[in-house]
């Protein structure tokens, strides 16, 4: 298939080595482990047959038009500029690996330096790494990092807002279960975290707050930051929709210590939930405890500027079991996608996308409210909001190919009539009108 | 000469090309008069202002600075830099796959769920281990997942075991993942022949031993001949065996991991199964486990009930999810396409040619470079710079000289047990012609190490930048523009 050797080549290579057959290469392997070795998978035949097979698998799905989907909740339906795919299809980018040999990886390295710069700035923070797997694992690693930074062993509690995405909380639990760290849940009131509880926190080393939160609402980071630092803890924010940061004041303006998020919104297609992009930023003084790859600027032997992976003594290939994390790769090509997206949209374009999201979402909610569908929570939001809807109306919309929102009942039985509706630049005014029409009077 | 001159532009940073007033992609505002919030962000930092054409040109120029698999041999040991089939790229871009939101109802994504289910089954067949999770994002992530599963097993059985034995040849992620999963690590030295001896392991195994983490073939490219006995020993002592599957390319169709006594195995889809390395990701690190460990798999797992595919969250003793959603679906598509194109026969052929190519390189370079172990080589071979050191030429110099000759260097200075290690994995997709050129280059470098060592010290000369000051980068970290 992708083996360029002719039969003659194989014979020639074997003869150079002094062997008769390919099986001889495996002769030294003990017989007792060679049982059942056959991989019983049938080939589909040829490339054409494989293509057909996957086309059928693709057809066996009912994916709504982007304009007709109002699904969000951690992954977002945004307009992806055509130029991105052109660039990432260049094999120089997608078939290279981790830039261990910087002289022949300056494409990857310079792009990652640009990525780090723009992500740090988007979050309003000092520094960003070259990316993590996704938003949820970034949140987990942020907590572990805060724990490493904490000098007092007694401070063993992390307070996590109950307005954080429920799936993120589950991932955090998985990651921190071996560490002995205790999780305290901060209750919510009216869709926002109840800040009174932060003040009462004991032995807390970190407070984790989403921004915007799972219900779409922007938490009051000024108050939260004050209270968190008052009790001697570090503030970690989690942003699942970074486009919001092009409109609202970013975490950095609120003295946040570690700000993480999910970068899928920055030009990465949905792909049923992965691969995404973990965004990880912090204060400069914490850099040596940061997990993940870091790209730094330097000079070469001739005085030219160049880029290299740096501060590797934090990482597993140097420190092994004493590393800040086990993470090895980053999200490579997806970090490149985000870099290209931010460059293509630019300052103005990004701001414009954020404004369109905000306006359409608020306009839609207004119209829903006119029809008696009120938001469940008060408070400023970006592009998603939570409402109560009747199953019958939901079904009516689904029948017409519209995915009306995310059913929150899947996370909590108490939310069985709650829906999170997300509106982005992919939803036109027409599609909103259609939605409203189908709801009836 | 393999390498010639060409015009390659020096390219500034986006922020240096950016100018106020240049405009990128500006979508039309459907509600121009609708009010905006009062509290708004005031500035956007270094987010640039550039036209689309300038942006595209910028990244095209950057791409010229990268060496890739499609440029030539990229023999990084244990990375399996094989050819990335373009069919995979085409299939992955089918709209139904690219535009599927992870929260769509199950009825809407039956094709997608079926694809994942089939990949689970394929990986179960390839490993001989029935319980599969596709969720982990990368190899290291799979290791963490596997070690968390082992931890859950021991907690459940109240064994109190808290120690993992790891060979000194292991990839750094192995001890790092063990540590993250709450274990302490004990290191075992590889034997004098380049593989682990069960007697050495026996000396280290005690009541606290929860598991051993092994890689087979190991990072020396050597088959762990005593692994079956080592696994037996560990099982007898109530411990489990973790298999790092990074080197699976060496033995498909010849050895099934389960037959070695492995209980937990991670795969690297971006290595063995041809998905793109992407400049450092995204990869995918599914994990397969024996049936008694299936109770601990991360949620959700794809199940089939009658003729429907479902996301099964009902795994009461699951370790929990290890990432958001279900794993790197965009990568899984490519891996399954590869597996279904090749079939079991094709995968066996892959391993045969991978091992053949590595052995050929060993044979051709043995007269020139020091080979630390006489033991048979599988898919990768490790040499050292010992002979060249006589002229003060190091592994680093050899690597940089290879760059000037148009090759990506092999992995250098790993595994740590070999001083000045040069770890070469050609993979099966390299032709005899390309390998012969590589061999020629290595022989030439050996000659130059005696006749013109300075030329090697000065390498690389043909690249856009020369050797970079990494000490300076670490001492005065500059991690962003400005």
What does this 3D model show about the protein?
The complex is a heterodimer of chains A (441) and B (482). Chain A has 441 residues and is α/β, with parallel strands linked by helices. Chain A has 13 helices and 14 strands. In chain A, helix 3 packs antiparallel against helix 11, helix 5 runs parallel beside helix 11 and helix 6 packs across helix 7. The model of chain A has no long low-confidence stretch (mean pLDDT 96). Chain B has 14 helices and twelve strands. In chain B, the strands form three sheets. Chain B has a seven-stranded mixed sheet, sandwiched between helices. In chain B, helix 7 links the parallel strand 2 and strand 3. The radius of gyration of chain B is 25 Å and the shape is globular. In chain B, 60% of the residues are buried. The model of chain B has no long low-confidence stretch (mean pLDDT 97). Classes of the chains: A alpha/beta (441), B alpha/beta (482).
Topology readout:
The complex is a heterodimer of chains A (441) and B (482).
Chain A: H1 7-17, H2 47-59, H3 82-88, H4 91-94, H5 106-123, E1 127-128, H6 135-149, E2 157-161, H7 166-176, E3 182-186, E4 188-189, E5 192-193, H8 196-199, E6 204-210, H9 221-230, E7 234-239, E8 258-262, E9 278-282, E10 295-299, E11 305-309, H10 316-319, H11 332-370, E12 384-388, H12 391-399, E13 406-407, E14 418-422, H13 429-439
Parallel strand pairs in A: 2-3, 2-6, 6-7, 7-8
Antiparallel strand pairs in A: 1-9, 4-5, 8-9, 10-11, 12-14, 13-14
Chain B: H1 14-17, H2 52-63, H3 86-92, H4 95-98, H5 110-127, E1 131-133, H6 139-156, E2 163-167, H7 173-180, E3 184-188, H8 198-204, E4 209-215, H9 227-236, E5 240-244, E6 264-266, E7 287-289, E8 301-305, E9 308-312, H10 329-365, E10 381-383, H11 395-404, E11 411-412, E12 422-424, H12 432-451, H13 453-457, H14 470-475
